[in-house]
Amino acid sequence: MQRETFDTVILGAGAAGMMCAIHAAARGGRVLVVDHAKAPGEKIRISGGGRCNFTNIGTSAKNFISDNPHFSKSALGRYTQHDFIALVEKHGIAWHEKTLGQLFCDTSAKQIISMLLDEMNQVGCELCLGTMLESIERDVSGFTVTLGGDRAAIIRCRHFVVACGGKSIPKMGATGLGYQIAEKFALAITETRPALVPLTFGEDVLAGFREMAGVAANARVSCGKTAFEEALLFTHRGLSGPAILQISSYWRERQPIRIAFLPGDNVIASLASAKRENGRRAISTVLSDILPKRLAAHLAETHGWTGPIGEASDRKLTAIAATLQNWEVFPIGSEGYRTAEVTLGGVDTDGLISRTMEAKTVDGLYFIGEVADVTGWLGGYNFQWAWSSGWAAGTAI
Ligand code: FDA
């Protein structure tokens, strides 16, 4: 087998790996990026409905979950959302803010992939697709990496960067190999689980709202002390939509989630004023003024809110408002890694240097992006973590 030497080998041509490659090669090193997929940046391509929510204008460490909430501060603070926006603008990619600070390409997520590949070409990175890691060994002077597949070779390198993401969406090439590499080098892994994922319900709960599949409503969804106010979507298997995806990262088995429709509204006051203005209107009709029609009709039917609102007592109006704004349900699980946008948990940040992403106990070994125990909220935060951590490692190599 062919033997070669590189300064840096990066495993994974995703968001973090490509960013790291650009900055490592810009410093003059010989950089090889290896990926078993047939194309680089596949998750970038499908992200944000094909338009890539590439960052969030309000990104800060508060938007991330990790056993060490301070770990992400260094990388996020030194390569910020504004740095990435400047890169996007340098490449003439038009973008817009959709909602809640989420920035998307105007045209296509493929522009972000082309931008990263252009930058990699400019600094002379080598990219090998269809290539697998067969083994990695370390000795005093560096790593011996055996590659199989399209670019089979034995490679010596001083730096090895693990950028192969988490376990979410195996169909798109996720393997979890990064965790095995961490374990091989005696680094700890925090518990991993699917996150930013739809929640599923038992038949008893589902029977109560299955016919609502496809209905979306704004809601405040909470679990313990954490709450998100965004859209909620009823599905055939349970609940989805941004508010549910967000709370899924905090929910644990056997815990309830609480759902408040019409968050922030004074529902009792709205119902009382509807009663005063026209008492002959049916309760379900009044509710359909403030909720999606199908949801209003369904709630009225299942709770027996029949008859004109004029005949409803104040106690009943209070009970209706309480039902709308304090619905407690127990999910039984989630859709799992099949649809999860990210993997929660990962390589324990206690074992990594936050400024460089290098393992504290293994010189030259780095973990960047989703494989590390830093998980962002929905809204462009996960890509920003990939850019920032990739930059931190790349500029340290
Ligand atoms: P990433 O998964 O991007 O890259 C890992 C690379 O390693 C892949 O190219 C893979 O093929 C390769 N690899 C894996 N195992 C390997 C092995 N054994 N050998 C060789 N190569 C291997 N985030 C966000 O901020 N905004 C958004 O709009 C979205 N949208 C979105 C939609 C969907 C459907 C998903 C699934 C995810 C998102 N995300 C997102 C999350 C975002 O995609 C994710 O956080 C980043 O891609 C993580 O970047 P990484 O580079 O760490 O891993």
UniProtKB/TrEMBL annotation:
Q: Which cofactor does it need?
A: FAD
What residue stretches are annotated with the RsdA/BaiN/AoA(So)-like insert domain? 193-342
The record's section on InterPro entries has:
BaiN-like, BaiN-like_dom_sf, FAD/NAD-bd_sf, RsdA/BaiN/AoA(So)-like_dom, RsdA/BaiN/AoA(So)_Rossmann
Q: Does the record carry Flavoprotein as a key word?
A: yes
**Record has Heme as a keyword:** no
Instruction: Please state every residue range assigned to the domain named RsdA/BaiN/AoA(So)-like Rossmann fold-like.
Output: 7-395
- Please report the name of this protein according to its UniProt entry: NAD(P)/FAD-dependent oxidoreductase
- Species, as recorded: Rhizobium setariae
